[in-house]
Design a protein that fits this description.
single chain; 766 residues; alpha+beta; seven-stranded mixed β-sheet; 23 helices; 28 strands; elongated
């Protein structure tokens, strides 16, 4: 049925005895019309289909009448009864039932049209909503006790539409906040005050005049739910398109609390409730797109909602909570006194003192959020260095997989279980066909230890060749093959069965950038070691090398280096081990594994760090031949290696990398980051070299580009200054003068731009 303007005019004349003109208005749910009588008095006429429960329409009428009879009377519409004194009229057309209502017209401008909004306006909105909720606190109606998808308490139902969000970044962001709602809000919903609320104080329903709130319209979203949701929704829409959204919300909360005092629990959840409303909106918009909706109201807040959700994740929830508390007159929950000194003192007492802590001014991290970290002081940091959280801190897909499995079963590997087989199949599918046998451990150190043990079983030799300045872990064997440790302070020196090869550093080393044969030339150093072993009637058991050098200086290996070295080592009878602990799983961008950049196939690959996104999981993957040799009668058993929870975690990480195309992201964002960093070199003489692949990046800092004197302690000052600006980076390299940049591979182009812009500003002072 199409309701024309002429039909509405006749309908009004019949049921209200009014002569009016009519204009069709846009609407989201019901049909809306603007009526004007002969004296220029205006009315709003609404028509609802039979899909609308008439008892719910009655509930709206009664709710508005309560408000119309209160001190807020002038801020709400009044119902105009029909000539039969009915608030809701009914007609039957083409065997369909329709319900109509006429309401008075409120003058004023819509909130959306206010270009400049003052803090007074935001506070006045809070005052108005608080006063309205005081009036309605005892209002009840059975029809308001309904399930409604736009009720924030039902936000987790939005997950069913999450997959309609096409952008990986946006879908991940929404999924993160849905997880946080489940974690932070859901357990507390039963303890929140409830009421019948308006539930839709958006920018098209609020009428204003300057700094004054004129009124609120459209009660079609009313529902009995948590009282604080009314405030959360108003904050959400008011924060849209604001460059300082938290300040906006603070003013609304301050005003609301003056009229309707909030409880500490309500204040503590408000940040997550606001995010929850945005999640509902974005999931619904994505679903509407999938249904080819042409209703502009279905998508009207999509872009600003995405922007606001991105702004929210950059706001430490502790900061938001604390600011809301202060706005309500509650005490601060941020301890700025000697809290850290107490922790440091107890740490020193109970924890080994050679466990280092980053930064001069220590940071206590309380929460992770994808590529962000939150401290206990309300600060947010962009994590530019934590490559362990490969797909992001608290990635919802990984978290949910872990939660489900740990709630189902976790035990050792002496029982049959699908997870370990499935993960081994999925993992080996990413590797060359020669690498087919998996052994699971708990850390990269343990995995490297096992890899050396396997190589010694296979070759019946003990000597191991490593690169100078290399680091392979913390076990006794790993320390023995890590010059970074055994040559460093407190080190025990090189064992006679360990041999250091030249570090293939094309910036500081013997063979430089521009030498097309640098890889082959550096590889010749293997001949020296192999010959020295032959003189002693020995052969190498293994050559182990990171496929991009981490502690060695964030160095990308010269072309053909590994191809030449592997050939020499294998000819001498040794096994070639690729340490992918810091490099693998798509980080280098163009390839999934670092060794693929060198066009080689290792005999053993060692995996760690990113494999479990921070969960203690690592692996050794080798050929059937080496695995058969290792199967010499001594059982390999690892209590936790390969347990069902670890395997579920590993599967989830692989799923995320594939589904969110994170290897592609690492390539694109990494290339952009490298280009931006390279562009800083002409501006800042302290930058000696920029190097890396994908999101494995190093920036070497020098005091002099000719002498290459390392910029120490300047680099430490730069790291501290970047931390104060909200960016976590670290140092590396034999001379401790290389900025280490290895963020989670969900790092965005915008993240990279923010980082480089701030680094540019910091370097300007050197």
């Amino acid at each position: 049925m199409k309701f024309t303007e002429s039909f509405i005019i006749s309908l009004i004349q019949e049921h209200y005895n009014l002569e009016v003109s009519c204009k069709i208005l846009n609407g989201y749910d019901e049909l809306n019309f603007l009526l004007t009588d002969s004296s220029d008095k205006k009315y709003i006429f609404k028509i609802a289909t039979e899909e609308h429960n008439p008892y719910f329409l009655e509930a709206q009428v009664k709710m508005i009448k309560v408000l119309s009879n209160s001190i807020l009377s002038e801020k709400f519409q009044h119902y105009i009864p029909t000539k039969n004194n009915q608030d809701i009229g009914q007609i039957t057309l083409e065997e369909n039932q329709f319900y109509f209502r006429m309401l008075s017209y409120l003058e004023g401008d819509f909130w959306i049209n206010q270009k400049e909004k003052s803090s007074s306006l935001f506070k006045n909105l809070g005052l108005f909503l608080g006063e309205m909720d005081v009036v309605l606190k005892d209002f009840k109606h059975p029809a308001a006790n309904r399930y409604y998808e736009w009720d924030i308490k039902n936000v987790l139902e939005a997950r069913k539409n999450l997959h309609y969000i096409k952008s990986h970044e946006n879908r991940r962001l929404v999924a993160y906040f849905l997880l946080q709602f489940e974690t932070e809000v859901t357990p507390n919903i039963a303890d929140l005050r409830t009421a019948v609320i308006h539930n839709d104080a958006n920018d098209y329903n609020i009428l204003v005049d300057g700094d004054r709130i004129i009124g609120l319209i459209d009660f079609g979203d009313m529902v009995h739910t948590s009282l604080v949701n009314n405030l959360a929704i108003a904050c959400t829409y008011a924060m849209l398109n604001s460059e300082k959204p938290l300040e906006v919300a603070i003013q609304i909360v301050r005003g609301y609390h003056e009229k309707m005092a909030l409880t500490p629990l309500e204040v503590s959840l408000l940040y997550y409730l606001i995010a929850g409303r945005l999640c509902i909106s974005l999931c619904q918009s994505a679903y509407n797109y999938s249904m080819d909706s042409t209703n502009e109201h279905h998508f009207i807040t999509e872009k600003p909602a995405l922007k606001l959700l991105d702004q929210l994740i950059r706001i430490n929830p502790l900061k938001a909570h604390n600011e809301f508390r202060i706005a309500c007159g509650f005490s601060s929950i941020i301890n700025t006194s000697d809290n850290h000194e107490t922790i440091l003192k107890e740490r020193k007492q109970y924890i080994g003192n050679n466990l280092s802590i980053s930064y001069n001014k220590k940071v206590k991290i309380d929460k992770g959020a994808l590529q962000y970290l939150y401290d206990d002081q309300g600060n947010t940091f962009l994590d530019c260095v934590n490559n362990v959280s490969h797909v992001g801190h608290c990635h919802p897909t990984v978290v949910k997989a872990m939660q489900k499995q740990v709630a189902t079963l976790n035990t050792n590997t002496r029982y049959l279980n699908d997870n370990i087989v499935e993960y081994a199949k999925r993992l080996t599918a990413t590797l060359p066909k020669e690498l087919t046998v998996c052994y699971f451990t708990n850390s990269g150190s343990e995995a490297n230890d096992l890899a050396i043990r396997m190589s010694r079983h296979f070759t019946k030799q003990k000597d191991v060749i490593v690169l100078d300045h290399a680091y392979h872990g913390t076990s006794t064997t790993a320390i023995e093959m890590s010059p970074y440790k055994f040559d460093g302070k407190g080190g025990f020196g090189k064992m006679p069965y360990i041999h250091k090869a030249q570090n293939p550093d094309m910036y500081r080393g013997e063979f430089k950038y521009g030498d097309n044969n640098a890889g082959e030339k550096y590889a010749k150093d293997m001949d020296r070691i192999i010959v020295s072993l032959e003189i002693q009637s020995k052969k190498p058991a293994a050559f182990i090398c990171e496929t991009l050098l981490g502690v060695g200086g964030q160095i990308a290996l010269p072309p053909n280096y590994l191809k030449e070295v592997y050939a020499k080592v294998r000819k001498a009878g040794g096994v070639c081990i690729a340490d992918e602990v810091q490099v693998g799983f798509g980080r280098v961008g163009t390839k999934f594994w670092g060794f693929e950049l060198q066009d080689v196939i290792p005999d053993i690959v060692v995996l760690g760090k990113p494999i479990g996104n921070g969960h203690p999981l690592a692996a050794v993957i080798t050929t059937q031949e080496i695995a058969d040799a290792f199967n010499n009668g001594m059982e390999y058993f690892n209590t936790f290696g390969g347990n069902p929870v670890s395997m579920a975690t590993g599967l989830a990480v692989l799923k995320v990398i594939e589904e969110e195309e994170l290897q592609k992201n690492a390539l694109e964002v990494g290339n952009y980051l490298l280009e931006r960093l390279e562009a800083l070199k002409p501006k800042h003489n302290i930058i000696g070299d920029v190097r890396g692949n994908g999101l494995f990046v190093g920036v070497e800092l020098v005091k002099d580009r000719v002498t290459l004197q390392p910029a120490v302690p300047e680099i430490d000052q730069i790291v501290e200054m970047m931390k104060e600006r909200g960016f976590f980076i670290s140092t590396d390299g034999p001379l401790y003068n290389v900025l280490k940049i290895k963020p989670p591979i969900i790092f965005s182009r915008e993240n990279a731009a923010d980082f480089v812009d701030n680094l540019d500003a910091v370097l300007a002072s050197f």
